[in-house]
Write a structure and sequence with these properties.
By secondary structure, the chain is an alpha/beta fold. It contains 5 helices and 5 strands, in the order E-H-E-H-E-H-E-H-E-H. It has a single domain, classed as Response regulator (Rossmann fold, 3-Layer(aba) Sandwich), CATH 3.40.50.2300. The protein is 48% helix and 19% strand. The protein has a 5-stranded parallel beta sheet, sandwiched between helices. Helix 4 links the parallel strand 4 and strand 5. The longest helix is centred in the last third of the chain and has 19 residues. Keywords: Phosphoprotein.
């Protein structure tokens, strides 16, 4: 992969976040980790990402409020819903947020990497380059 593609990983489980950071870094991505709902919202408000791997259940607020606040932001970063919720719940939230992808937990690494690659490539056209404004 040429250039660094910046991925926001919103995951409150330390072991999962660490595994994802190591995996994505080895794949050539730059990873920013967040572990609370407020940190996710602040990161999305501050900058654009090539992709956001978004756990729906984050400390600090209910899922409904968290989803509503993300929806209000209207983030231009492509969202990849990453959750253990029931498929119909994930689908409904993904539609609300216009998510680029759904990744069920437990994660299949090949599915995650393949989907992430497609989402990042799709985001390059809308972002204009591999550089993200900080």
């Amino acid at each position: 992969m040429c250039g660094k593609h910046v991925i926001l990983v919103a995951e409150d489980d330390v072991d999962t976040a660490t595994m994802l950071e190591e995996l994505l870094t080895l794949e050539g991505y730059e990873v920013e980790l967040t572990a609370t709902a407020r940190a996710v919202l602040d990161a999305l408000a501050e900058r654009r990402f090539h992709a956001v791997l978004l756990d729906l259940t984050m400390p600090g607020m209910t899922t409904d409020r968290f989803v509503s606040e993300i929806e209000e932001l209207g983030t231009p970063s492509p969202l990849m819903i990453f959750s253990a919720r029931l498929p119909h719940e994930m689908q409904a939230i993904a539609e609300r947020l216009h998510a680029a992808a759904l990744i069920p937990k437990p994660v299949d690494i090949d599915v995650l990497l393949g989907t992430l690659s497609k989402v990042v490539l799709g985001s390059l056209g809308s972002l204009g380059s591999t550089d993200i404004d900080r």
